[in-house]
């Protein structure tokens, strides 16, 4: 599942020709990138404004990339160099009247423009432009549509080298996971008291050994804590791991190299000889849901059919509901992966949001259905990458509780 923090990508690169080709393919006149003091981190990252030393950007700026022709800029007169590193002519404004007239000039000839906007805020990760700015653009006679799939192309698609970093990180995570279960089993057999925090901190050390980094320590949830999807043990708040308990391991990490992307997995163990039927049935339901989601993605990609995030979520959640666990769903089926564990691409979500972005070749994401009760929870989490003609799972699939 990974950290709950907000995600932005730091490796996005702006290629004018690629953007213009994408705009023409999607029937758009332009992409209007806008930011005010970090309110739109996607635009700031894609334009690399945050990485321009010596140039302040404390006022509103606009950068219009047309489907044809040269980009145009609208920047404040006291910060004329905010977008100097980008191609295109710049118009300066100072007062708000000049801003509004400058925006009309910027949008001259544009009928349909993409912005970081999502109708009804269906995808809040995309909806970064405030309502007032959208109103200003619409007052210029321009239709505003979502830039969701454009963002994916230029902030979420992985290169061959980037995909290799994911595979390497994934292999390392699976080794850490195996060591954690082995540690728990050994301590239980030897009668050594152990806790969630003990195992977590051992995993932190193994992360260092493997050259993995993450934004937070991995999660170890025992017993009732497995029913809390965002539980995380700490030095002051944790529980012992004892016999006849569920143990959930959730770990995410990436290589400590520039441009590396995350892998993120969850596995379940049981500290007893026989898993109770109640636990086993719930786990069987989410395994079936996971496999249904994987099949939905693979079948669509292999047939060269478009597939969107909400459709994957529906494939998984319908299996869970048919098994009688609909009331125990607390989160979406999966999330985008990137340089942050929660990337800027499509999420497998028709539960928390309605993500209608397409699964594009070169994007990576998790499939992680789970069900949660007052006294326990179960989740299985794997990673997938879409290629031009297939979709691959990048690690082993858990089919039964690990016997600890």
Notes on the structure:
- This protein is of the alpha/beta class.
- It folds into two domains: 140 residues, Creatine Amidinohydrolase, Chain A, domain 1, CATH 3.40.350; 244 residues, Creatinase/methionine aminopeptidase superfamily (Creatine Amidinohydrolase), CATH 3.90.230.10.
- It is built from nine helices and 16 strands.
- Helix 6 runs antiparallel to helix 7.
Tell me the number of strands: 16
Elements, N to C (H/E): HEHEEEHEHEHHHEEEEHHEEEEEE
Q: Please tell me the CATH architecture of the largest domain by its name.
A: Alpha-Beta Complex
CATH class of the largest domain: Alpha Beta
Number of domains: 2
Please list the strands of the largest sheet in the order they lie side by side: 4-3-2-1-5-6
Radius of gyration: 23 Å
Q: Name the poorly predicted regions.
A: 5-12
Query: Number of helical runs?
Result: 9
CATH superfamily of the largest domain: Creatinase/methionine aminopeptidase superfamily
Outline the biggest β-sheet.
Answer: 6 strands, mixed
Stated plainly, the CATH topology of the largest domain is called Creatine Amidinohydrolase
N-end to C-end Cα span: 22 Å
């Amino acid at each position: 599942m990974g950290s709950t923090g907000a995600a932005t990508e730091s490796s996005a690169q702006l290629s004018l020709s690629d953007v213009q080709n994408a705009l023409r393919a999607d029937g758009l006149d332009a992409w209007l990138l806008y930011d005010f003091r970090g309110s739109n981190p996607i635009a700031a990252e894609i334009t690399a404004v945050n990485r321009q030393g010596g140039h302040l950007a404390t006022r509103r700026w606009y950068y219009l990339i047309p489907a044809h022709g040269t980009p145009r800029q609208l920047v404040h007169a006291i910060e004329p160099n905010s977008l100097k590193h980008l191609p295109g002519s710049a118009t300066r404004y100072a007062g708000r009247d000049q801003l509004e007239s400058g925006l009309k000039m910027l949008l001259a000839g544009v009928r349909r423009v993409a912005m970081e906007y999502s109708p009804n805020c269906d995808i809040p990760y995309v909806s970064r432009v405030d309502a007032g700015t959208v109103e200003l653009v619409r007052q210029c006679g321009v239709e505003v549509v979502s830039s969701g799939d454009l963002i994916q192309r230029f902030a979420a698609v992985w290169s061959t080298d980037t995909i290799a970093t994911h595979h390497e990180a994934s292999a390392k995570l699976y080794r850490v996971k195996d060591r954690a279960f082995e540690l728990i089993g050994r301590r239980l057999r030897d009668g050594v008291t152990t806790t969630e925090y003990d195992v977590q901190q051992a995993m932190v050390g193994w992360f260092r050994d493997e050259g993995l980094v993450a934004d937070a320590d991995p999660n170890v949830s025992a017993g009732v804590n497995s029913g809390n999807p965002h539980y995380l043990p700490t030095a002051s708040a944790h529980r012992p791991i004892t016999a006849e308990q569920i143990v959930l391991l959730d770990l995410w990490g990436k290589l400590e190299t520039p441009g590396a992307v995350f892998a993120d997995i969850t596995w379940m163990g049981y500290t007893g000889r026989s898993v109770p039927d109640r636990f086993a049935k719930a786990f069987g339901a989410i395994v079936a849901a996971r496999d249904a989601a994987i099949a939905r993605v693979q079948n669509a990609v292999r047939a060269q059919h478009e597939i969107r995030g909400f459709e994957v979520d529906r494939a998984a959640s319908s299996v869970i509901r048919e098994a009688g666990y609909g009331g125990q769903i607390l989160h979406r089926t999966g999330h985008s992966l990137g340089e942050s564990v929660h990337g800027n691409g499509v999420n497998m979500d028709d539960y928390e949001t309605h993500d209608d972005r397409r699964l594009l070749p070169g994007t990576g994401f998790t499939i992680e259905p789970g069900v949660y009760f007052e006294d326990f929870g179960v989740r299985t989490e794997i990673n997938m990458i879409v290629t031009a003609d297939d979709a691959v799972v990048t690690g082993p699939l858990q089919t039964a509780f690990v016997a600890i």
